[in-house]
Amino acid sequence: MKGNDLISTLYEHGTLASLMAGNMDGTITVADLLKHGSTGIGTFNGLDGEVIILDGEVYQAVSDGHVNHMTDRQAKMPFASVHTPEDLEKIELSNVDFTALNGDFAEKHALKNIFAALRLKGNFNHVKVRIAPKQEKPYPSLLEVAKGQPTFTNDNVTGTIIGYYAPEIFGSVTAAGWHLHFISDDRQFAGHLLEFNADQLTGDLQIFDNLQQHMPINDQAFRQGEVDMGILRDSIAQSEGNND
Amino acid sequence: MKGNDLISTLYEHGTLASLMAGNMDGTITVADLLKHGSTGIGTFNGLDGEVIILDGEVYQAVSDGHVNHMTDRQAKMPFASVHTPEDLEKIELSNVDFTALNGDFAEKHALKNIFAALRLKGNFNHVKVRIAPKQEKPYPSLLEVAKGQPTFTNDNVTGTIIGYYAPEIFGSVTAAGWHLHFISDDRQFAGHLLEFNADQLTGDLQIFDNLQQHMPINDQAFRQGEVDMGILRDSIAQSEGNND
């Protein structure tokens, strides 16, 4: 349990609901995003790939399987989350996979109603990721995109898992439960984590007091977008429900 | 449309979902809440009344219909929202009621996907409020409490409406749509606004870039609370769905 005097914040730009509706134009620059944290995940303008941010360095996995080291700080993102690592709880896990993270681990750390960041490093026996392909206008819904996303696997690879846990009641605002990305130590393999298992991983867990949810209020597509909560819930379940 | 360089934040402590589940113990002091804004709404420990905060002064409407001017800054609240009035858009409305706020007004200001604060002053032809009665442990669900809340009406009264608009996708985190409280100029009549109409009101609208959602992460009832999303949606619809 952290002390009462420490306040930590997860910063999120954009909402999953708006992205689901096909609002995929970037609405925050990398430069502005990095003002709120050095570590995180997201996607680029047009849903172009899976982003991993570690120590202020930005990596983009694109849908042919390559990883770009992005140095353009004016590139824009429609949806991204970052934080500043601090007040970390050290984690050591054996025989770990999504079943363990969703089960014993989430229960032990009483995650279900809070936001947390997880970083895990080590050698992975197996990793499976997916990478969103860049979309062109008129943008389809995220559900349509999700049906045709390429996946990639890698065995015996050393790397880092980075991402977040979000409470179920925020499940239209962001991805509920675990939303994790992976990047290999050689920065050649990365993506949105679908499956993994490892004998031994080490890392850290950070629990947030605050979600700072930033809205692109000057973006008309965001502002005017229609939300059908029933369709939204079904779509999120189909496109994001892949971790258990 | 506000400028890109102005950032404003709505601060919220606690979640509607947790309150619905019966977690009614206060988890933030008035002193700590007021660090994040001078104006807002909320409720006290044990769901004791309806709170109106104007210019840093805290008023509590209690269920016998009286209004207390609260000066105890160590009193605790389980759920509250505050902001600092700034970058205000002046509002003048004729023949205004909830139908107008939910319809033309929300559409004109493109509110549906954003958070906003509304403050309206003037003479009201009619006002109907409800006031949550203080609960004792073991706390019931908010749905149970909502079934038996006293209501009060007042005609030809001058006063202020203060409260917030929230997007539908945040409807388990806070009250979606309008969540407004009322207090009379003589500070003798106040509560959670159920109905009103007025010939002419003036005030201001403030649109937020950010929701700062603060969680009572050291509170075990909050941390461990079970959320059944289906029951939660039904309960919120029944207990909060009163403005249209």
Automatic annotation (TrEMBL), chains A, B:
<keyword id="KW-0005">Acetoin biosynthesis</keyword>
<comment type="similarity">
    <text>Belongs to the alpha-acetolactate decarboxylase family.</text>
</comment>
<dbReference type="GO" id="GO:0045151">
    <property type="term" value="P:acetoin biosynthetic process"/>
</dbReference>
<keyword id="KW-0456">Lyase</keyword>
<dbReference type="InterPro" id="IPR005128">
    <property type="entry name" value="Acetolactate_a_deCO2ase"/>
</dbReference>
<comment type="pathway">
    <text>Polyol metabolism; (R,R)-butane-2,3-diol biosynthesis; (R,R)-butane-2,3-diol from pyruvate: step 2/3.</text>
</comment>
<keyword id="KW-0210">Decarboxylase</keyword>
<dbReference type="GO" id="GO:0047605">
    <property type="term" value="F:acetolactate decarboxylase activity"/>
</dbReference>
<dbReference type="Pfam" id="PF03306">
    <property type="entry name" value="AAL_decarboxy"/>
</dbReference>
<protein>
    <recommendedName>
        <fullName>Alpha-acetolactate decarboxylase</fullName>
        <ecNumber>4.1.1.5</ecNumber>
    </recommendedName>
</protein>
